[in-house]
Amino acid sequence: MVKVVDAPEGFEGQGFFATSLDTVIGMARANSLWPLPFATSCCGIEFMATMGANYDLARFGSERMSFSPRQADLLIVAGTISKKLGPVLKQVYDQMAEPKWVLSVGACASSGGIFDTYSVLQGIDHVIPVDVYVPGCPPRPEQIIEGVLKIQHLAKNESLRRRDSDEYRKMLETYNIETT
Amino acid sequence: MSTSSFLDKTIEGLNSKGFILEYTTDKYNEHNIVIDAKNALEVVQYLNAELGYNFLVDLTGSHYPDKENQEYQVVFHIQNLIENTRLRFKSNLSKNLMEFPSLTPVFSAANWMERETFDFFGIQFIGHPDLRRILNVDDMDYHPMRKEYALEDETRRDKNDTFFGR
Amino acid sequence: MSELEVNKKYNVQVSTETIDGEIATLNLGPTHPATHGIFQNVLKVDGERILHAEQTVGYIHRAFEKLAERRPYNQITPITDRLNYCSSPINNLGWHMTVEKLIGAEMPKRVDYMRVIVMELSRIADHLVCNSVIGVDTGALTGFTYMFQEREKIYDLFEEICGARLTTNVGRIGGFDRDFSPEFYSKLKTFLKEFPKNFDEFGSLLERNRIFMDRTIGAGPISAERALNYSFAGPNLRAAGVDYDVRVMKPYSSYQDFDFNIPVGTEGDTYDRFMVRQQEIRESLKIIHQALDNMPSGDYYADIPSFYLPPKEEVYRSMEALIYHFKIVMGETPIPVGEVYHSVEGGNGELGYYLVSDGGRNPYRLHFRRPCFIYYQAYPEMIKGSLLSDAILTMSSMNVIAGELDA
What we know:
The complex is a heterotrimer.
Chain A: E1 11-13, E2 16-18, H1 21-30, E3 35-39, H2 42-51, E4 74-78, H3 86-95, E5 101-105, H4 106-111, E6 132-134, H5 141-157, H6 166-174
Parallel strand pairs in A: 3-4, 4-5, 5-6
Antiparallel strand pairs in A: 1-2
Helix pairs in contact in A: 1-5, 2-5
Chain B: H1 3-16, E1 20-25, E2 31-35, H2 40-51, E3 55-63, E4 72-80, E5 85-93, E6 99-101, H3 110-121, E7 124-126, H4 161-164
Parallel strand pairs in B: 2-5, 6-7
Antiparallel strand pairs in B: 1-2, 3-4, 4-5
Chain C: E1 23-28, E2 40-46, E3 49-56, H1 64-68, H2 77-81, H3 88-103, H4 109-137, H5 141-162, H6 182-206, H7 210-216, H8 224-229, H9 235-239, H10 246-249, H11 270-293, H12 312-317, H13 319-330, E4 338-346, E5 349-357, E6 365-369, H14 371-375, H15 379-383, H16 388-398, H17 402-406
Antiparallel strand pairs in C: 1-2, 2-3, 4-5, 5-6
């Protein structure tokens, strides 16, 4: 059964349909997110389960895993990020094209979790901006799906000008991420 | 040959070479042998070649800051798979001379175990082909498993000590 | 040219000629989709053929050993969960057994049998991930989707035992926190009835599949001597032909009561590793059947009140229970001074715990013998002279788990 998303609000007449560009693009973006799984540890296994047949992330238009950051919209960081890996993560984020979203899956990625140690980065938000945090150690697949749905909500309702705004640029500068 | 008589043979052999400083069997039926660090490679070579100890189970270190001149310890387990006999060897190192012969000529597996021990404790393995840090970042300037270093990240900003009981 | 000599027995169709000076450096990792984890390999390749590999690990080093020195014994179990997270219960129960060995506690038979069931279930779960991922790397995604459904059923069983799916924190020092529920038994029986059929279906997809065999036979081989020299353990060592299994050599948790075979391979290549895991899953099922049929009656915990939490109702009613409860929760239980090494057969081989206690509330030193960490160093030797695509297969068939590798 093919399920089609509802059309955005607009004005409909015979042979035409008028709506704002924002909503159309938002709808398209939200329902075809290409995730880049940056799965490092335990949460990665739960992410695999999310991709598996029982939970099936593909139902939400995200079945196309993009292992190249250049073609991904959504960076899913699942698992512990150590200080050794921090620069790698930042580079991956840098390489992604705008618009991009970040989903931090699990306690380790969100805050360092139980690993308050010398080698673990205490939350990936020290390195890159995060849009949605998913708690849990590891979160259940349902929670990961909920996180993806929240990202979809963000993508749907985002203003087309947000990524060009000064506010956004300043935010990236606090992370020492170059903007063009 | 039963396991206990094989064990006796091992201990006898090691004793005849003068390798054993101290030998105890503890209440867990584990055999602890203290050896001199500078003999370690010969001990392992002898055990491997003559007595068929062919499996290096584990190699690690410990830090005992209160024991004078024996601050560091290298511990390794070695096993004969055919006789099913496992021995635990220890040798104490002074903090002034933290050198231990590398076991890599006999066991390739010792390579990373020694690198890990070096990374954690700073014990120098003489004759190791590539003694670098393995788990931590290369520019780390201390050996984190030593007792004097804190577990927690020193640079953290977000956690308030009053809430975390530290 | 000598470096290019192929160590593959069945190799065909690939030219071994090289053009001088045409050696490329290829960075595989740290986040490469084919590496299933975070490891970096810098490869020197001549065309498709690998001349040299340089490994970097430690990308998710989380300082387990340092962390364990700051935690009371009971609180170390959640850390062990995160070692080999494909089979957490084995790690948990191995840790419990280590502490029980240190304090000299005897377990009732029932606890042993319950542990055996849990450990064998997690061994199946562990091997299922590895084998289905080998399938994915050879281009057969179907097996993966099939087997992850079966894994979900094992997760359901774990949920029934302890409430968690992946990082289970199952059991306690001195037994289990609760008995297996009747639902668990009925779910387990359904699982045991349905799983072999579905698993055989998966097996029939790959085991005698001509394409799969051509692809995996001869890929990443290692001889028994070299494997022993590298201290391989578990399925990888057995695939090379050495029948070393901790369950038999140093039986723990009443494994001596069970009748099972140790599958061994001959070549130590990817196909052998795959087949050894396949057979081990079948042996594990046999063990679970035996444990279930001969499940002894009795308590699901040992009589060690100073380590095992009393029931909550008792804590409210009796003085003694309250004191024990307080002491255990605060980590004030007296622990004997001593050192033990205990090992269990984990998903990847001998998982050892070297524990030194100075009588304090935390271990003085705890070292994990992590099988992945030890055998992964043989990887450059195994892939030298082979094709790049075989290197990927070799890595997935070795089942390198980043959490266990980097501790």
